[in-house]
Amino acid sequence: MNTPAHLIFGAAVFARPDATRINIAALVGALVPDFSLYFMVFWNSRVRGMSFDQIFGEQYFSPYWQSVFAVDNSVPLWSAGLIVALLIRSPVMIAFAGSGLMHLLLDFPLHHDDGRAHFWPFSDWIFESPVSYWDKHHFGHIVGPIEGVICIGLLILLWRRFEGYFAKGLILFAALLESVPAILFPLIF
What tens digit of pLDDT does each residue of 112-151 get? Predict the structure, then answer.
């Protein structure tokens, strides 16, 4: 799934009116598994001057990048975090770890050749799903629109759940962010 979809799913499951800390934790948890990717792409493209072909054709699959992704996409680590959060009964930590774990569980079946080592540190194995959220050769032309429709439904749910102008503005912004990949991915891939 694309990152905006993860944010929408995380908010739909964990965000509540008048629970600012929990809402922020849910959004941050949904973002953390993809943050290293964004940072490394930014660093390599803007600071090191690499092309996106170099970044996504070579660097993305390098042992170093994959080792970073293994840590922030580790189901055992996020599960342990969620278990601790549940044991200490911290709603903020539950939202953070739950949203991060949900990100991984949604990503697992939707990456064909660009998946992550989700079972690190116990295994470096990477599941190669027959389905992709973006690659048309692996049903991305079907999965992507389904993801978009589900996100629209979740955005409607969030719109009804939240009343303030700031919250409504964030929901509209999330809708915009989700629509960009939906429009660009079919054109690019």
Answer: 999 999 999 999 999 999 999 989 999 999 999 999 999 9
Q: Where are the domains of the chain?
A: 3-188
* Maximal CA-CA distance, the chain: 47
Select from 181, 159, 143 the least CA-distant residue to 12. 159
Q: What does pTM read for this prediction?
A: 0.92
Where on the phi/psi map is residue 139: left (φ > 0), alpha (ψ -120 to 50), or beta?
A: left
C-beta separation of 72 from 36 below 8 A = yes
Q: Round to whole Å and give the CA distance between 135 and 124.
A: 23
- Look at the block and give the residue holding tokens 């054709």: 57
Percentage helix, strand, coil for the chain under 3-state DSSP, each rounded to 5: 75, 0, 25
Q: CA dist 126 to 1, 53, 66, 136, Å?
A: 16, 22, 10, 20
* CA distance linking residue 171 with residue 159, whole number of Å: 7
Distance CA 51, CA 54 (A): 5
Q: 55 — phi, psi (to 5°)?
A: -65, -50
What DSSP string runs through 78-135? HHHHHHHHHHTT-HHHHHHHHHHHHHHHHHGGG-SSS---TTTTT-------S--SS-
With beta carbons less than 8 A apart as the criterion, state whether 77 and 71 touch.
yes
